[in-house]
Design a protein that fits this description.
globular, 9-stranded antiparallel sheet, single chain, alpha+beta, 3-stranded mixed sheet
Length: 341
Amino acid sequence: MPGIDFTDHPHRRYNPLSDEWVLVSPHRTKRPWLGQKETLPPDNRPSYDPTCYLCPGNERTSGIRNPAYESTYVFPNDFSALLPGGASEDMPGTGILKAKSATGECRVICFSPRHDLTLAQMEPQDIRRVVDVWAEQISDLGRKYAWVQLFENKGSAMGASNPHPHGQVWTADYVPTLVAKEDQTQKQHFEAHGKPLLLDILDEEIKQKDRIVELTEHWALIVPFWAVWPFEYLLVPRRHVLRLPDLSDAERDDLAKILKSGLTRYDQLFETSFPYSMGWHGAPTDSEDRAHWQLHAHFYPPLLRSATVRKFMVGFELLAEAQRDLTPETAAQRLRDTLGS
């Protein structure tokens, strides 16, 4: 039989990081779109909003007033999903219906005092400050918790409750489900091959070039071979790094630059402030040996064809297997073209 034509033939791709498959249906990009279109919210935010509970000097819903901060600002989440004190015992029962106690802390990171600046719009030196704060949060909270999740939900399409650019930190006294999957796959690969899984994948991606969006001295930004979201990113350091605090000054400077350019590509693709959910995955901060880990960040943006057409995870995807139409190779080329490289 002839080989798979990635540009026209339905096929499945394997995600070695999550041990899952995704169905790719490139021929479906030819169909007309008659589905839902989003209404774009006006993006005319002021640099300061007196009604915003994240702006400097304003009072939050908890009654606590923010200081007049002038740089990246971190504070405890007023509505934390996890709390430091919880039930001390697991749920008793037969073993079929299980429940366990869960403890942790949640914080909010305001990237800038400016209400109107996203990460893509900030200067590299200011993004570098965000990178340093991310690393500080890992170092601080990792002493107490097994997992520290840094993430950002940008835009109302991804459920952001406030337009002031900000991220979050959730910690947990356990290793969460998706992270545990990545831990297992990376450990198995490291034991079999003696090299981190993502660095072996990165070597192959650099050889093939089709899915590389940007390559710098210290970082690689790619649309992964197994991407589910239309313009998904995987951001990986080019050397073996376990966690954000392990990055050198040069790597942090380079990270700030590639974050700005990568997110600018998003904004220019459909000429809109691109919504996404992103988050860092580094080695868990428990006492286990995690030498098999490789630091990386996932970016999951929902926009499909334009600023008003988004991808929904429904039907076959909810009930059977993830599926996408636009190939990762096409997505990467379109993202490269936005900045002419």
